[in-house]
Design brief:
The protein is of the alpha/beta class. Among the domains are: about 125-280, Rossmann fold (3-Layer(aba) Sandwich); about 375-440, no CATH class. Helix 3 runs parallel beside helix 5 (about 210-225) and helix 11 (about 385-395) packs across helix 14 (about 425-440). It has 14 helices and 17 strands. The radius of gyration is 22 Å and the shape is globular. Helix content is about 30%, strand content about 20%.
Length: about 450
């Protein structure tokens, strides 16, 4: 029987219209625009200069702080500039711009199609290699993976959970990876188990992906008995770390807590593949799978995309912008980010480009709250969105903290269910930022 989390959740149409689109290699661009802020934490520090020749996979910017990540060239060519360029929101971010001249990879990257199953590195060596290769979480937050696999003093991991839920509507990149590179994902999971020193791993997959469940179960029963495939009900936001932990091991992450507080580390299937490639193939993270989709499009595609590819080039690769396309989103419709600049470029964690029509994006006119409590029923964190909205509009920061606005995961379930079209998430997100700022500046006891 499929499992699910115990609090809240919604059931939007999954719209997996790109589900049958096999992964294709996206053609190399003429210029690569590689952001130095494509991970959580401090921007990376350039180690190349204008005019330098670089190869694919070469380190071009070094992690600059405890929470930071190395950045590698996704192409070979000449560094044409290091300058601030707009990101998808239009904010200036430092980029290394490379004029592409062929595709000459570093010689020590194993480019063979052979699967390397034997894990020779020790736990500390695995962590060092993951950090060296700039691997970050590919489930959305882009948190440096080597840090997540290094629990702080006093914390011990008991389980590793691999997130194959892909609960966001439209996204199919993780699904295609599970169909096309299943064993590499499982070896990546084993590598992370070794780094964490745990002997139990769960792979959670929503039951709207029966082919992936069947394929992964067959592989695990035959060759990877330490990894158990768990079928999950199709329910949003099943892929949230806290919801996944609740669904699979029935443990609750405490308020303002982290998954490791429950003895669990969660990693995405794309991250597992990146770990495999880093440790077994010596390949840095400089490309990923991107779903390009939308009901208004005539083509649905899943591309293996080099970091630094412009959004504009992705859209034109599938026939250009449809006449009725009104909005472009990086990611899914629930938690993705609106793209304000099509000349912005992809980063490590880019998972999808979604085109929506005006009809699909237009909000209804805001009305009065009718006290229906649908937002409360939907909230997967057990919060009261209607109350948080009211407190936010009144500027009552202390009361917002007392009502745990800081625990909101910004999934959008509340605004999705509200019959009065109240922009609950908009106000809650703003007040959450204020509360977190207050908590960071509050003197420690």
């Amino acid at each position: 029987m499929s499992r699910t989390f115990s609090i809240g959740g919604i059931h939007p149409s999954d719209n997996k219209i790109s589900v049958n689109a096999a992964i294709e290699n996206f053609p190399l661009m003429e210029m690569a625009y590689i952001s130095l802020s494509q991970h959580l934490g401090a921007p990376a520090e350039p180690v190349v200069a204008k005019g330098d020749k670089v190869k694919t996979g070469q380190l071009i910017a070094k992690a600059n702080g405890f929470i930071s990540a190395n950045v590698h060239s996704s192409v070979s060519g000449t560094v044409s500039s290091i300058e601030p360029l707009p990101d998808l929101a239009g904010n200036p971010v430092q980029h290394i711009v490379i004029k592409v001249e062929g595709d000459d990879w570093l010689e020590n990257i194993n480019r063979s199609g052979e699967i390397v199953r034997e894990i020779k590195m020790s736990g500390p060596e695995i962590l060092a290699k993951i950090a060296e290769c700039g691997v970050v979480g590919l489930g959305g937050a882009a948190f440096p993976t080597h840090i997540k696999l290094s629990p702080p003093p006093g914390k011990k991991a008991e389980y590793l959970i691999i997130n194959g839920a892909e609960c966001e509507p439209y996204l199919t990149s993780d699904y295609r990876l599970m169909l096309e590179q299943p064993e590499e994902i499982l070896i990546g999971a084993k590598i992370m188990m070794k780094a964490l020193n745990v002997n139990k791993c769960f792979l959670g997959i929503e039951d709207n992906k029966p082919k992936a469940i069947k394929k992964m179960k067959g592989l695990c029963s035959k060759s990877y008995p330490q990894i158990k495939v768990v079928s999950l009900l199709k329910k949003y936001p099943q892929g949230g770390e806290k919801q996944l932990i609740d669904a699979i091991v029935k443990r609750q992450v405490p308020s303002m807590g982290l998954p490791i507080d429950t003895g669990v580390v969660v990693q995405n299937v794309g991250t597992a593949l990146a770990v495999y490639e880093a440790v077994q193939k010596n390949k840095p993270l400089f490309e990923g799978i991107v779903t390009v989709t939308g009901k208004c499009m005539t083509e649905q595609r899943n591309f293996r995309m080099r970091v630094g590819t412009t959004f504009e080039s992705m859209i034109f690769a599938v026939g250009g912008f449809p006449k009725d396309a009104e909005k472009l989103i990086s990611g899914g419709p629930m938690m993705g980010k609106a793209v304000s600049r099509i000349d912005a470029s992809s980063v490590k964690s880019t998972s999808a480009l979604l085109l929506l029509t005006e009809k699909e994006t237009k909000r209804g006119e805001e009305g009065n709250c009718i006290r229906c409590a649908k937002c409360v029923e939907a909230c997967p964190m057990g919060l009261e969105p209607f109350l948080l909205n009211r407190l936010s509009r009144a500027g009552k920061i202390e009361e917002l903290e007392a009502n745990l606005v800081q625990d909101c995961i910004e999934c959008g379930s509340c605004i999705y269910t509200c019959p009065a079209n109240i922009p609950l998430l908009d106000t809650i997100r703003l007040s959450k930022a204020q509360v977190l700022k207050m908590l960071r500046t509050r003197p420690k006891k």
